[in-house]
Write a structure and sequence with these properties.
Layout (H helix, E strand, L loop, with lengths): L3 H4 L2 E4 L9 H10 L5 E6 L11 H8 L6 E6 L7 H7 L3 E5 L6 H10 L3 E6 L17 E5 L14 H14 L5 E5 L7 H7 L3 E4 L1 H4 L4 H12 L3
Helix pairs in contact: 3-4, 7-9
Length: 226
């Protein structure tokens, strides 16, 4: 049976898989096609090998969409970037627990800047690493691929982490959202939704399709949406 989270699962297309020569048009297109959020992957060439974008791109995207901008900082020591991304218009700012020295403090700073605060975990990072900070987080992001590149295969064992986090959040009566990023498509959406995900990031499954609306409808249908 589909969980409540599954029935309300948001889809956040990741611009990592978009055509950057037409980025504004791409974001408008997925908004019109029914996207719930826009996921923005920021990479620094240190925490992960690639380098992607900075706060200036987020500022320009803010001009072309009313959707929440979900900024995922895959960067080493992200604290010095928080103010810039918040000022650029990020609604959600997520940092990796593996890249943070003082997670509790960083989450407080993000919230003080007017954004929602998220914690991301790499596939092999245990839930225990965020157990005591989760009450300060508005979102927990489970990476279901190793971060850095789009188009990777879904790592099945990450579903057990989602289930453990869902249980922890529910037991404590928290409103923290659960997000998953990597390999989400119409084939994996049912298992993702059943595990208790609130927000599914989909990159190549959306931007690699010829019909964005049909691609997202397929994910929603597989997740149990009507």
């Amino acid at each position: 049976m589909a969980t409540l989270a599954a029935m309300n699962m948001r889809i956040a297309p990741s611009i990592l898989s978009a055509d950057f020569a037409r980025l504004g048009d791409e974001v408008r297109a997925v908004e019109l096609a029914g996207a719930d959020w826009i996921h923005v992957d920021v990479m620094d060439g240190r925490f992960v090998p690639p380098i992607t974008i900075g706060a200036a791109v987020v500022r320009d995207l803010r001009k072309v969409t009313a959707l929440p901008l979900d900024v995922h900082l895959m960067v080493h020591e992200p604290d010095h970037l928080l103010e810039d991304f918040a000022a650029a218009g990020a609604d959600w700012i997520t940092v990796h627990v593996e890249a943070i020295k003082h997670l509790d403090r960083t989450l407080q700073v993000i919230r003080s800047l007017g954004a929602k605060a998220g914690i991301a975990l790499n596939p092999a990072t245990p839930v225990a690493d965020v157990e005591w900070a989760i009450e300060k987080a508005d979102l927990v992001l489970v990476m279901s691929v190793n971060p850095g590149y789009g188009g990777q295969q879904f790592i099945d064992y990450t579903l057990r982490k989602v289930e453990a986090l869902r249980s922890l959040i529910d037991q404590r009566g928290l409103t923290t959202l659960l997000e998953i990023d990597g390999g989400v498509n119409a084939t994996t959406a049912a298992a993702v939704a059943a595990a208790g995900i609130d927000v599914a990031v989909a990159g190549s499954a959306v931007f690699g399709a010829s019909d964005y609306a049909a691609a997202m409808a397929g994910i929603r249908s597989a997740a149990g949406h009507k």
